[in-house]
Amino acid sequence: MLSFTLTGTVSSVLTNAPDETTLVLETLVARTDAQPRLSWILCSVRDADPRKIAAQHLRQGDQVRVDGEIEQHRRQVGELGFFSLVFIARKIERLPEPITGAGQ
Hints:
Elements: E1 2-17, E2 20-31, E3 34-45, H1 48-57, E4 63-77, E5 80-94
Parallel strand pairs: 3-5
Antiparallel strand pairs: 1-2, 1-4, 2-3, 4-5
């Protein structure tokens, strides 16, 4: 299984079911030979502790760091095989607000 770490801004927190939350993050993705691109990443939050953090402490606009794993799923429809990736958040850390203001 592959792991990931990303830093981004919370766009929304969606409660899909009692045991799963989806964290929608905006983040800049670096690309080879091109400008970074703003992307939206959907992270599935299944473990109880990170789910509690997401539901009770995160709001739109918060800066976060998420560590987790990438799961690959394959679904067969007739003769066609479809692959998808699921980002599973294992650890969520709310980052401090950047300091801004006069003289900074």
